[in-house]
Specification:
By secondary structure, the protein is an all-alpha fold. The protein has one domain (about 1-70). Helices cover about 60% and strands about 0% of the residues.
Length: about 70
């Protein structure tokens, strides 16, 4: 049981940059996931993915109000 928990925690830690990018709705979340999958095994690749996921390129939500609510 402990080994299963350790594996799940390890996988979650490995994909932490991809999880952060998805949660932040990063514009390049797919590319971050792919780079994390392929290069995350190296410490430098994981750090680059983590920094990229934490950068400020997130999707903007645009809300269009009907004319009755505009001032």
């Amino acid at each position: 049981m402990f080994s299963l928990l350790a594996i799940v925690c390890g996988v979650a830690l490995y994909f932490l940059p991809a999880i952060i990018a998805h949660h932040r709705q990063h514009v390049s979340s797919g590319a971050i996931f792919l780079m994390n999958l392929l290069l995350g095994w190296s410490i430098i690749g994981w750090i680059v993915c983590f920094a990229w996921a934490c950068s400020g390129d997130t999707r903007q939500k645009v809300v269009i109000l009907p004319p009755a609510y505009r001032r």
